[in-house]
Amino acid sequence: MVQHIYPQVAGTDLRNLKTTKAPSADWTNLRKKLPDMTGKRVIVLGSQNGWLNEQAVIAGALASLGVDASRTNVATARAAAISSRLRYRLMPTATWPILGGQYDLIIVPNVGPENYNVLANTAHLLRHGHGRIVLSGVAEYVQQVESSIYSSDHRSGSWSASDLAKLPSGNVMSILRRSRLGGHQR
Q1: According to the model, what pLDDT value does residue 66 have?
Q2: CB-based contact 176:163 (threshold 8 Å)
Q3: Long-range pairs, 62-71, Cβ under 8 A, ≥24
Q4: Are 107 and 41 in contact (CB under 8 A)?
């Protein structure tokens, strides 16, 4: 078994690091709309080459985990890792619901027909029961995931969502926010 060693970075503040060019206009627009990541734990489902994970660490995230079903994508992301706060996991899409850990921000940059049906079960990853889920992809599937997340949560009213924002490719993005901090809902 090949062991991957992540490069260490001197210091912990990477915010002044020069960012690499985004792989697409969609990713550039997505990054601009993301909430503040300072001190957050981030997971990107369908992380591809790890660009968005890298941006999360540069923006101040404590840790960023990228999960992808492609061995090539994970190997590419690991080879380009700029920080020991980046981790990548090879995991088939169908197994995403069994992921463990707790995150402040869940990002799914490519919602489509191959993954929308497993994404309803991702809200369990939110730390302390609250946080944000950022979805982007085909409008029909993004809306189906939103609906599934709302209906899988047994406490009504704990979710709010931004309006669907159109991206340059024609895809959309939505930010769902779970505001439940515990206590009783009325």
Answers
A1: 96
A2: no
A3: 63/87, 65/89, 65/101, 65/103, 67/43, 67/91, 67/96, 67/99, 69/93
A4: no
Assigned token pair, 76 = 């590419």
CA-nearest of 111, 82, 86, 84 to 96 is 111
Residue of 38, 34, 40 lying closest to 13 (CA atoms): 38
E strands, the chain, in order = 41-45, 63-68, 86-90, 105-111, 131-137, 159-161, 165-166, 172-178
Q: Is residue 77's pLDDT more than 50?
A: yes
Domains defined along the chain, listed by start? 38-178 (3.40.50.150)
Tell me how crowded residue 180 is: count the other CB atoms within 10 A of its CB: 16
Distance CA 119, CA 103 (A): 15
Q: Which two tokens stand for residue 33?
A: 């709309």
Quick: pLDDT tens for 134-183. 999 999 999 999 988 887 776 666 788 888 999 888 999 999 888 755 44
Angle between helices 51-58 and 25-33 (to 10 degrees): 30
Any alpha helices (H) in 67-156, and if so which ranges? 71-79, 139-152
